[in-house]
């Protein structure tokens, strides 16, 4: 794998754009989460597909889809970032969070399961904290059954599962995630079977967009707060969001229109994840840097403003 370009800073986040041996391009990210130092937590965000077939109207990854990465190609992303920071190959952090959440829907690639099987033999198991974010594509029941098995055998309470929901309204959810997927009832049933006492709760993520309905009471009727927690994020500035007129309901100061207090009042743990504004400029937040790179570094007003540094290294 050759890294062709990078953007960002070691103090917050870096995006890497690479070319595989087959000539296809992929991107991946490393980040820290201030004020937590790298020694305590380091986050690696991996791609699992070349592009994405889901086509969410606020995500820049859906502009193309050229197939699935192999397990070796996914692990090569980890190896590059670890080797760059820690030439000895031993990550100098107490918590290595590996997120399958960059380019591509991970549940569409069985190689992700192979990666999860192999990681504990490559890095100290006690520091590994995998996180998988999914829209719950239909027809992938076998993948999700195997995912639960891998979690139970190898990770337990160190594994995080997140479902990207975005709306409780079926029509709005169909627009935001235009792909055949599990309904909310099926997600609730699976989440209950996936979660075990003492483990991390299953996360329901809502990137809150203006005009998109989200009902706290509808969630409470399906999702038990003992099993599920709610994560509220802004809609980050991307080319697709701008093109489709999608703007964030969540303000930079964290105001989310009262939904956070309502959810907490119904017994949910709620994470309001705003992130660093600078990450939008780096392009390391949700959204993809690949479009920015391939289209000649076009800038958005609020994103992708860091310079892309061209490089050619093995």
Account of the 3D structure:
- The chain has 314 residues and is an alpha/beta fold.
- It has a single domain, classed as Aldolase class I (TIM Barrel, Alpha-Beta Barrel), CATH 3.20.20.70.
- It has ten helices and 13 strands.
- The longest helix is centred in the first third of the chain and has 15 residues.
- The radius of gyration is 18 Å and the shape is globular.
Secondary-structure blueprint of this entry?
Layout: E1 2-9, E2 13-19, E3 25-31, E4 42-46, E5 49-51, E6 65-68, H1 71-85, E7 96-100, H2 111-122, E8 128-134, H3 141-155, E9 160-164, H4 170-176, H5 184-194, E10 202-208, H6 216-222, E11 228-234, H7 239-243, H8 259-265, E12 270-272, H9 277-282, H10 290-294, E13 309-313
Parallel strand pairs: 4-7, 7-8, 8-9, 9-10, 10-11, 11-12
Antiparallel strand pairs: 1-2, 1-13, 2-3, 3-4, 5-6
Helix pairs in contact: 1-2, 2-3
Quickly list its features.
single chain, globular, 10 helices, TIM Barrel, two-stranded antiparallel ribbon, 13 strands, alpha/beta, eleven-stranded mixed β-sheet, 314 residues
Number of domains: 1
CATH homologous superfamily designation: Aldolase class I
CATH architecture: Alpha-Beta Barrel
Shape: globular
Query: Over all CA atoms, what is the radius of gyration?
Result: 18 Å
Low-pLDDT regions: none
What order do the SSEs take from the amino end to the carboxyl end, as H and E? EEEEEEHEHEHEHHEHEHHEHHE
Tell me the number of helical segments per DSSP (H or I, 4 or more residues long): 10
CATH fold label: TIM Barrel
Quote the distance from N terminus to C terminus.
6 Å
Count the beta strands: 13
The major pleated sheet works out as:
11 strands, mixed
What proportion strand?
15-25%
Can you tell me the CATH class?
Alpha Beta
Give the strand line-up of the largest sheet. 12-11-10-9-8-7-4-3-2-1-13
């Amino acid at each position: 794998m050759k890294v062709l370009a990078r953007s960002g800073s070691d103090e917050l986040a870096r995006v890497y754009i690479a070319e595989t041996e087959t000539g296809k391009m992929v991107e991946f990210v490393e980040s820290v989460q201030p004020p937590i130092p790298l020694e305590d937590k380091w986050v690696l965000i991996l791609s699992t597909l070349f592009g994405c077939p889901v086509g969410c109207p606020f995500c820049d990854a859906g502009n193309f889809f050229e197939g699935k990465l192999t397990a070796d190609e996914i692990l090569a992303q980890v190896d590059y970032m670890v080797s760059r920071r820690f030439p000895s190959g031993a990550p100098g952090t107490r918590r290595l969070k590996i997120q399958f959440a960059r380019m591509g829907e991970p549940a569409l690639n069985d190689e992700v399961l192979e990666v999860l099987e192999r990681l504990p033999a490559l890095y100290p198991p006690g520091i590994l904290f995998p996180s998988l974010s999914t829209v719950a594509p239909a027809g992938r029941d076998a993948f999700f059954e195997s995912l639960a098995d891998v979690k139970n055998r190898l990770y337990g309470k160190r594994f995080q599962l997140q479902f990207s929901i975005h709306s409780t309204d079926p029509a709005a959810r169909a627009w935001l995630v235009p792909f055949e997927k599990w309904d909310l009832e099926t997600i609730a049933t699976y989440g209950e079977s996936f979660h075990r006492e003492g483990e991390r709760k299953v996360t329901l993520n809502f990137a809150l967009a203006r005009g998109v309905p989200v009902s706290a009471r509808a969630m409470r009727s399906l999702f038990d707060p003992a099993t599920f927690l709610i994560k509220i994020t802004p809609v980050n500035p991307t080319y697709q969001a701008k093109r489709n007129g999608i703007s964030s309901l969540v303000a930079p100061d964290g105001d989310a229109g009262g939904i956070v207090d309502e959810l907490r009042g119904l017994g949910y743990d709620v994470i309001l994840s705003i992130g660093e504004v600078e990450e939008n400029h780096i392009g390391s937040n949700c959204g993809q840097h690949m479009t920015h790179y391939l289209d000649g570094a076009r800038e958005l007003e609020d994103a992708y403003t860091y310079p892309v540094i061209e490089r050619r290294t093995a």
